[in-house]
Amino acid sequence: MTNNTNSLADTASLQADLIQAVASLRCIHEIMMNAEGVSGVPKHARIALEGVLCGLEGYTDGEMQA
Q: What is the 8-class DSSP label of residue 36?
């Protein structure tokens, strides 16, 4: 991944990377939700991740609508 977003190809690559990152974080969030209270996952960690996901999903322009 590069920081150069001057070309359409780079922009598309960054968008794809972001979508992949959000998908991975959603999986981690699901695991945290399922493990909360069982394996010591703190609730504040899950809530913090939800905030991160909410912010990142705003940049995906609805590409990840489930």
A: B
Intra-chain end-to-end CA distance of the chain, in Å: 25
Task: Please give the residue that has the higher pLDDT: either 58 or 52.
Answer: 52
DSSP label at residue 6: S
Burial 53-66 (b: 16+ CB within 10 A, else e): beebbeeeeeeeee
Half-sphere exposure of 38 (CA within 13 A, CB side): 6
Q: What would the pLDDT profile of 11-33 be if each residue is shown by its tens digit?
A: 778 888 988 999 999 999 888 88
